[in-house]
Amino acid sequence: MTTTASERSSALRELGLDGQNQATIGRLLATGNIGHAEEGDDGRMRARIRIVPDQLIWDPSVLVLPHGGHLDIEFVNDDQNTHCALVPSNGDSKWMWLPNYSRGTMSVTLDGPGYYWFSSNIGNDEGRGLIGAIVVRGDVPESARLDRPKQPRP
Amino acid sequence: MTDIQDRTDIEYGEAPPPVDFGSLTTAPGTAPPVAQDVTYERILDARSEPQNWLTYYGAYDGQRYSPLDQITTENVVRLTPAWVFSFSPHGLHAGQSTYAFENCPIVVEGVMYVSGWDGWVWALDAKTGQLLWQYKHAIPFDVSLCCGNVNRGVAVAHGKVFVCTLNAHVLALDATTGECLWDVTSGDVRAGESLTVAPLVVKDRIVVGSSGGEFGVRGHLDAYDMETGERVWRCYTIPKPGEPGSETWPQEGEAWARGGANGWITGTFDPETNLLYWGTGNPAPDFDGEVRPGDNLYTDSVIAVDADTGEIRWHYQCTPHDLWDYDSNMECILFEQDGRKLLAHFDKNGYCFVLDRTNGERVRIFPFVDRITWGEISPDGQVTPRIYPDKEGEEVHFYPGPAGAKEWTHAAYSPRTELFYVPVQDTGATVARRRREFKEGIPYWGAAVTVDAKDMAGSVSAFNASGEEVWRWRNDLPMCASVLVTAGDVVFAGTPSGTFVALDARSGEFLWQFNCGSGHHSSPITYSVEGKQYVAVPVGWGAWVEGFLPGMMGGPHGQAMFVFSLPEDIDSAGGR
């Protein structure tokens, strides 16, 4: 069987893979929404990420940054259970409690390009669906590139 | 920014403020300022302070020999664990199935500096194992890794800890707090570059070599100013068209631009010649030589690089036009014989090369593994290939396999016994050429490869500088970890099954073992604190297991620093 990208969301829904305790016990990873961080005049990027009630899913579960740098994330827990946020950052990962109906902001620094997983690392929040990705676009500085002709890419 | 509005039926509270994850440990966050006074001059004379292990190989000569002699062939049987530092990551990280603890610790006056997989750096109390501080660089999950999520060590000088990251950054950390002082991007992750090497402090610089040969990059060494992170020189290990050596690459096309030759293992250094002796990696594509006719300099070579300018002064190519993935990254051990300044290099291709390190002149070549079928190298250096992937899709089987008769893990040399102690792998592989188009960031091997999981053997073999095998300690599995030798005439080596063994340096007699619970693929060291000698070995099986020992693909991962010492009642007479 093959599916197209546009059919993927409906296929996940039909199969019950985009929710809790349907086809599987938890929710398939990375089946949530995609969001973009905003870049301020000060060069810092900002985003808000929520935990959806009874869904154990970050919203957005894929956060896209235009380039590496400093990111301020406001986490909002709309769920009726306590979770937390563990987010990679240069120097040390940042961690915070997210009690029911709470909100708080953390700042992280990430290199680009590449992508990073963040999660709620208690119980099996991760396996149930509370793993998200921060996608960093862009390129390394010119000074770090190889002295060679431009090469073909996939 | 995509957003969902706050719910109006909820009165939100403030979440407790975020913290550094490392603050939720017992680490105090600071280490004694012992690294402040570590200078180039002290590293030059590192063996005069045997309580420390100041640089990757213990000293610039790469001998992995310690003058400590409290632990001897007589009392080593009483060696017991002093402490264990165990660490396991949270969340998902790159290479979850392939991470390994390949580190070689640095010790300065009772503080141990350790790097792990996935951007971890730890400062530990070398007497107790207490975590003092930790640094974690965020490593992209999708970083290109040919051979696993690994890092081989840090360098320490001028109050700083220098470390490379898998996303090709070079960092300087404050040695007392772990705070990042500078961070430079050294390579291009989109091209498949990464960094796994332990930096080498030379004068007021650190030198690093790039990784990424399996992705068709152009290898290079770089020197960075220790204080500022400014790049002082870059030495490409493949010449551009028109440069010396470029005649060994096709004149048409861009094979040179994708040719590999990465310097992913730390070099050695002779202050008298002012030369760095650095091994270079395989050409790319590894097994499809038809797309890169010629010798392909400076792949699979020992290169002597001017420490001040980064210029290549001489080279010796161990496997011209490599078709077997025979990197020459392994250490160059500096020693003297009959008044000559020599180096010994045990290569993946199964031969040891003894060279005059002043000019690269060949002194001696000898085999150090039983089965060599890929070809032959005569004592006068003539290379005759015999079995190699040639016709598209046609399988050939050869020894040693692509992990080599000795992988990157290091031999040791004792000036007391004048013997080299070599971890040997005797494993074959089947390879069929499978041509593929080059695309940046995609593995570029040019073959289908399966390494034998049966009919293999290993040993720690002792050779004198004339190439005579003096003794051999046999192991059922290939030996895939570095060897350490001490003035107590004890050789330490870890096995893939997890045992850490001690052998008599003069006879090879088995003396002692301890089961560490996971295979060894790292570099043990020795040091002392308050007059007591310790032996430390990072334990954590993983990395390119499918390449060097697929028969142990299911072996348990580990992530612990094991440190051993003698019980308190052992007389330390003769100790230092």
Measured by residues with Cβ under 8 Å of the partner chain's Cβ, the largest interface is: A-B, 67 and 65 residues
Report the average pLDDT across residues of chain B: 96
**Remind me, CATH topology of chain B?**
Methanol Dehydrogenase, Chain A
Query: How would you sum up the major sheet of chain B?
Result: 5 strands, mixed
Q: How big is the Rg of chain A?
A: 17 Å
Strand content of chain A: 35-45%
The name of the CATH superfamily of chain B reads: Quinoprotein alcohol dehydrogenase-like superfamily
Count of helical regions of chain B: 2
Q: Would you identify the CATH architecture of chain B?
A: 8 Propeller
From the spread of the alpha carbons, the general shape of chain B counts as globular
Q: Please identify the oligomeric state.
A: heterodimer
Distance from N terminus to C terminus of chain B (CA atoms, Å) equals 63 Å
Q: What is the CATH domain class of chain A?
A: Mainly Beta
Helix content of chain A: under 10%
Q: CATH-wise, what's the superfamily of chain A?
A: Cupredoxins -  blue copper proteins
Count of structural domains of chain B: 1
Mean pLDDT of chain A: 95
Count of individual beta strands of chain B: 40
> What sequence of helices (H) and strands (E) makes up the elements of chain A?
HEEEEEEEEEEHE
User: Helical proportion of chain B?
Assistant: under 10%
